[in-house]
Amino acid sequence: MREYSDSETLVSFGNDRDRDWETYWLAAGIIVSSLPSARIVGQGDSTVPRGGGRNAFLRVGRLSHVDVRRWYGESAVVGIATRENLHASGMTVALEAMASGRPVVMTRTPGIEDYVLDGITGRLVDPGDYVGFAEAVLAYMRDPDLAKLHGINGRERVVQSFNTRAMCSSISEIVGLGRCAP
């Protein structure tokens, strides 16, 4: 895990069909209007807003794992906007961000509360609520200590609850196989 950065950079990754890039970029416009030093990075098939000055908005294409890790390390917060869905779209990015020690601002859809704990490891907002999304991101950018705390909480949650042993135990319990090998 890289030391927390208070860089005022928001990043988002992912290309699945349930990503809501419109909400993400609308929120980005509010963020940059309120905090002109902010930088917003997004991956995926989306139209990046114009304006914002000094290249505030950046759309990136496919990235190597090394580049994704670098962007997480340079970010103040990771944002994941999705449409209503039933399969926890964005979960991988949320877990990667938390493993990187970054707070997550994410759309509240069924099952996401099992991963991102609202007010503890990040903030959850309603689908399409670009104003709430922007406010949650700005709260972290304006309070690096809170962002760092929620990032640490997220990292601890991933290390303790989302590892191979925990997954094996959960699956074994569900299918009735008993215990996992040590």
Labels describing this entry:
42% helix; globular; Rossmann fold; alpha/beta
Description:
By secondary structure, the protein is α/β, with parallel strands linked by helices. The protein has a single domain, classed as Rossmann fold (3-Layer(aba) Sandwich). It has six helices and six strands. The protein has helices at residues 21-34, 65-74, 91-99, 130-142, 144-161, 164-175; strands at residues 9-12, 39-43, 57-60, 77-80, 104-107, 122-125. Strands 3-2-1-4-5-6 form a six-stranded parallel sheet, with helices on both faces. It is globular and about 55 Å long. The model has no long low-confidence stretch (mean pLDDT 88).
Specify the helix fraction band.
40-55%
Which term fits the overall shape? globular
- CATH homologous superfamily label: Glycogen Phosphorylase B
Gyration radius from CA atoms, angstroms? 16 Å
CATH architecture: 3-Layer(aba) Sandwich
Report the CATH topology name: Rossmann fold
Which CATH class? Alpha Beta
For the sheet with most strands, the description reads: 6 strands, parallel
Helix and strand arrangement:
Layout: E1 9-12, H1 21-34, E2 39-43, E3 57-60, H2 65-74, E4 77-80, H3 91-99, E5 104-107, E6 122-125, H4 130-142, H5 144-161, H6 164-175
Helix pairs in contact: 1-4, 3-5, 4-5
Could you provide a short overview of the structure?
With 182 residues, this protein is an alpha/beta fold. It has helices at 21-34, 65-74, 91-99, 130-142, 144-161, 164-175; strands at residues 9-12, 39-43, 57-60, 77-80, 104-107, 122-125.
